[in-house]
Structure prediction request, 570 residues.
Amino acid sequence: MSAELERRLRRAFDRLPEPGRDVSARTRSTALAAIPRAERRRAAWPFVLVAAAAAVVGLTAAALAATGNLHVDLGGRSSPAPRVPTRLVVPAGTNGIAVVAGGKLWLATRRGLRIEGMPVSTAELSPRGLFAAVGIGLSLVALAPGQRRAWTHDAGGRIVAIAWSPDGLKIAYVTRGSRGAALHMIEGDGDNDRLLDPRVAAEKPSWRADSLAIAYVRPAGLATVYDLGSGRRRSFDTRRCGGRARAVAYAPGRPRLAVAGGSGVALVERWNTRPTCVAFDRVLSISGLAWAGPRRIVTSDNPRPGIGADSALRWYDAGRHGIESSRTAFTPRLLRTVTSSPRSHAVAVVIRRGPRELDLAVAVGSRGARMSRLNGIRPLLRLRVPPAPVSISWR
Amino acid sequence: MRMRSDAKLVELARRGSRDAAAELFSRHWRPAWRAAYAVTGRREMADDVAQDAFERAFAALNRFDERRPFAPWLHRIVVNRCLDLLRSERRLVAAEAELERLEAREESGDQELLAAVAGLSLQRRVVVVLRYGLGYSPAAIASLLDIPTGTVNSRLARALEDLRADHEVNDVGRA
Prediction:
């Protein structure tokens, strides 16, 4: 009987399923990238020689060209450059931008951090764009310029969202496991990990401007704020403003919290006063929420499936007397998410162009006609990726 | 063409050969993933564990003692990651339910047996996977898990007893 059981066990293990192609490709890429760079450099010296030789040839050619003995044509009449850049460039006046789509990261910063197509679950740039925190496998990894790993923290679960505090000293992150999602906080140097809330929604948290409180969404769709000073947690019921909370965002420089429901936005100013809100038709669904300055909120929304309507970027004025819609820009293409530039002069959006094609683009600011078509879009990068969550970090 | 040994591939990968690292990955990815799947019982968790284990292993290639075989070293990382994760998240109960509906192929007997393996205690499950899934000897398992060979043998014997009892219960249920 034992031999028969052992034979059956071997057969059962032989018939286990195979790993998926996506995870195989993703792991292959991250594993190869994990091999220490110092060792890889040793093998690079032949390429250095080739590069040096090429440089000598190039300089010689340049010298000959300068004396008129050699005609040099650098292809000025070749076909025009593609309309959408194939390489991510840091938008002017900012420190860096990162986009995660289809489980891959594209990132460029002024300080020399550049990543193209690295498999990650999510990513966030540090406030000045010097570092990037990314989720790789079950780890939270801080990347420094030169793609060097500053530190790696074993998070014990897949990381679904990261938010770096405005003072740069702390990172809040959300992990997802079989029991749901949990909110953690770790210091910027990778030390002192703390579990702040074991039950949260798998949405991105948001830091208050003083870096002493974190807003996030609890599973029941309640916007919640964890105060690091007191250790106290407060929740807000904003369901009358477009349904259960899906996203939260603290204003830059002020303790004002925007809460996006499925089809509306609430503004929480004080603990003891009722939030003000703008709710619109339930046939629309908000896909992104951000602050475009201390007094202006921007959302992206799409029509629910089967509804023949356009998607829209909407700006709201958040004044002394609450929140009101100020401008709407429509587009026939689905908007996957939106975020604001560091100085709030523009917004970055991810626009769906096809089943596996997205554009990361910079869109016009909040000025313009109250209702208009979404125009003035400047593409930053075209992404050919499978459908999956999308996020942008712009510093 | 003669197949290069794991030790040779490790040496080349350390020197920066991407092809060697890729070959090492191709050679060991499938069994490592399936071991993770067999222990965790969940495809998503196996993805995470196997990816994490490979990253750790490749990041630590410089510290790997190339006089030793590569596969047990990698499998040790895989198993330890599984144990860490399962212990911290206590997914033991969920694993059984998951395995029942996972895509184990047509033979229902195999599914039942895998579900029974998923119901074993974590310590017994790991030695069963290493012994019958990856084909290690009890001595090799002992070395891999840093436990005495006698402990491996007793865990295996008890695991088989559990599985046999489970099998008999299932047969009674069918009768």
Observations:
- Chain B touches chain A through 60 residues (CB under 8 Å).
